[in-house]
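Team,

Forwarding the record for the chain on the shared tracking sheet. I've put the sequence and predicted structure together so nobody has to dig through attachments.
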Amino acid sequence: MPELRKDPILGRWIIISKERSRRPTDFIVEEYKSTGGFCPLCPGNEKTTPNEVLVFGREPGLPPNAAGWQLRVVPNKFPALIIEGNLEKSGEGLYDRMNGIGAHEVVIESPGHDDRFSFLPHQQMMNIFRAFRNRILDLAQDKRFLYVMVFKNYGRAAGASLEHPHSQLVALPILPRMVTSELEGALSYYKYKDRCIFCDIIHQEIQQDVRLVCQNNYFVTLTPFAPRTPFEMWILPKEHGSSYTEQSEESMNQLVSIFSETMRRLDACIPGVPYNFVLHTQPLRSNPLEHYHWHFEIMPKLTMIAGFEWGSGFYINPIPPEEAARFLKEASI
């Protein structure tokens, strides 16, 4: 029988359509092949991108915006928001508007065009997660920005327009509705129970071990109780913390280890699966929050959002998270 499940943080309802239940091999995934041709993110083409704002691993003696790097961060050539100008907030009756001020940056994760994030060496992945921290801290200095959204799109179905391995950051002058809803839901729980809901979720999932995918000394990967998509996963630190940028170097090292394992498990279950991942962290310049817990959410793109989903706000997931966790845990990596 199908089952309705309620997300304990957002209050969002999900339909687990068990009668449509599938195995990982039942999902048809379009192979993400290189199409060849010119790539602006490849070494040697640095002049085709805006000037880099961060670089790791460039060989000594080489000038900025030259080849010989391991990671570059550059402004997006076609940004969703632009950094120059003032917000100039205004109203038109009940409607509000402001200028599209923000920052939109591309993290070029590797010089290798065909490298896969899931299989990057440990040090290369450390560079990526350090770059996220570095850019969040730098963008936080701009008082116009309230939040930095870090995300990755992999595969055409997930919105990737370039094949070269990359992720993105967007600094926003407003708090995204998803973030405020999560903060409000977590605060409501904290006021009622005087505990962080994410900490309680981690404790229960480790204890029950039915949706736990993997863990190490610092982090857990789990399939959430009410997942929006098949094989949705969250990576959360075991120790409470509301800010991604405040973690220690050892925590970052452990994060890279579990992220790599998590993505390799997903790829072993569904090779080449398109996905998005997003970092959820506290707003910029916020004090530490006792009710909120930073984390990553990984959402494979295996189902379509159609009329019912748009009209109702419900998601239909054909595989229970307990089964997804079992497949992921048993995957040979």
